[in-house]
Amino acid sequence: YNANLILLTLKGGIPKTADGRLEIAFELYEKCIEKGLSPKKLYFDPLVLPLSVDQSQAIEAVNTIRMLKESFEIPVNTIVGLSNISNGSPKDIRPLINRVFACFAYGAGLDAAILDAKDEELKRIIQMLENKSAQREEDLLYINIADAVKNFGEISDINYNKDSDIENKIIKTASVISGNKIYSHSFTQI
């Protein structure tokens, strides 16, 4: 049917490291090529785990995306189930976690996402990142987060408006995703 194929980087479980996920991706890639599938049709999913379950896995998923984009002679695509990152988190902060994680994934080279189509702000942020056209003050922060990930920068080095409630919440979320701060259900309030 000439369809795209989503490949999950797991084998009897999800590896804890980006290297382990990449190893599985290589195995899957070889099997797909043997079957005559085009690398352009392959979408590798690094399997995003919830922050509330294992905080360290957020950055492992980001690192896996980056490694997948850099490791194949003929480039492959990446995809994530975006809202997986916020599963188990309080309902009021889930959209923020999804939006900030989208910036991380975008910066690492993400090609596609399965996302909440009702989250208009998330869709706006992704389009804004693609066009690099800030429409709101906090958009520069979203762009800077994506750029920091892309350029191996530090979240702590990003300048932002400390007087802005939304920018403080965005930077706190980025600090949790990057592992610089510890996740709790109330991290945006601390």
Explain how this protein is built.
The protein is an alpha/beta fold and 190 residues long. The protein has six helices and four strands; from the N terminus they run βαβαβαβααα. α3 (94-108) links the parallel β3 (77-81) and β4 (112-114). α3 crosses α6 (165-177). It is globular, with a radius of gyration of 17 Å. The model has no long low-confidence stretch (mean pLDDT 96).
Helix-strand blueprint:
Blueprint: E1 5-8, H1 18-34, E2 42-45, H2 56-71, E3 77-81, H3 94-108, E4 112-114, H4 120-131, H5 139-150, H6 165-177
Helix pairs in contact: 1-2, 2-3, 3-4, 3-5, 3-6
Short description:
The chain is of the alpha/beta class and 190 residues long.
Strand content: 5-15%
Poorly predicted spans: none
Radius of gyration: 17 Å
Biggest sheet: strands side by side, in what order? 1-2-3-4
The level of helicity is: 40-55%
Number of helices: 6
Query: From the helix content, strand content and strand pairing, which structural class follows?
Result: alpha/beta
How would you characterize the largest beta sheet?
4 strands, parallel
Question: What is the approximate shape?
Answer: globular
Beta-strand segment tally: 4
Following the backbone from N to C, one meets helices and strands in this order, namely: EHEHEHEHHH
Termini distance?
Answer: 51 Å
**Overall pLDDT level:** 96
